[in-house]
Amino acid sequence: MQLLYPECRPTSPAELASDLRFADKARPDRPYLIVNMVSSLDGKATIEWRTKGLSTDLDRELFHRLRTQVDGVMVGAGTVRAERYGRMTKSEELRAARVEAGLAPDPHAIVVSARLDLPADLAWPGAIDGAAPVLPPWQQGVAGYLAEKTVVAR
Ligand SMILES: NC(=O)c1ccc[n+]([C@@H]2O[C@H](COP(=O)([O-])OP(=O)(O)OC[C@H]3O[C@@H](n4cnc5c(N)ncnc54)[C@H](OP(=O)(O)O)[C@@H]3O)[C@@H](O)[C@H]2O)c1
User: Fold this and answer.
1) I want to staple 124 with a disulfide (CB 3.0 to 4.6 A). Which of 5, 6, 8, 109 is the partner?
2) pLDDT tier at 112, thresholds 50, 70, 90
3) For atom 19 of ligand 1, which residue has the closest CA?
């Protein structure tokens, strides 16, 4: 893996996605959002509705390393239905990296959905340790509704 800017040298997903301190970059009243995606050269975001055929092991390693740096991972419900999401942080090593960065072992899973028609077998923190879902302040009006649906989703 090669870093091109600000200097040209070899690097690694672990180096690129460590000590990023996104929370320090956020305005006090706003979340700090980063986007990570993969695309084919001709602009496709999936092959037969899955990203797997488009990405390499290195892409996936960077993707999982980035998850060690954030409070939550936001995903569209269509993606959850197409990709069958497992636990957001895949290994003890990655959970340890999150703790070292001052974060909880697992990030919040934030699903963008109007219908909440989600697979019943999602392995997300609420479903792992029984913790109640935590919503950002701008979503707390729907907290009760979502909490009820989260129980259904387990
Ligand atoms: N190339 C990449 O890096 C990459 C990354 C991520 C995903 N993908 C691929 O993208 C595909 C999924 O695409 P998608 O079009 O289904 O998009 P999506 O963003 O995953 O999900 C769309 C869903 O978002 C919800 N939504 C949209 N607008 C909303 C609104 N205003 N309010 C509330 N909810 C809203 C709706 O959920 P409900 O229907 O539940 O209401 C809608 O069905 C998958 O095949 C996935 O593999 C590729």
Assistant:
1) 109
2) confident
3) 76
Q: Which atom of ligand 1 is nearest to the CA of 45?
A: 1
Ligand 1 atom 40, closest CA: 113
User: If you measure from the C-alpha of residue 33 to the centroid of ligand 1, how many angstroms do you get, rounded to a whole number?
Assistant: 17
Query: Does 83 or 5 have the greater pLDDT score?
Result: 5
Chain-centroid distance of CA 79 in Å reads 12
Q: Which residue has the tokens 């909880």?
A: 104
**Which atom in ligand 1 lies closest to the alpha carbon of residue 117?**
40
Residues 37-86 have pLDDT tens digits of: 999 999 999 999 999 899 999 999 999 999 999 998 888 888 888 887 77
**What domains are defined for the chain?**
2-112 (3.40.430.10)
**Which tokens in the block code for residue 5?**
């800017």
C-alpha–C-alpha distance, residues 63 and 88, integer Å: 11
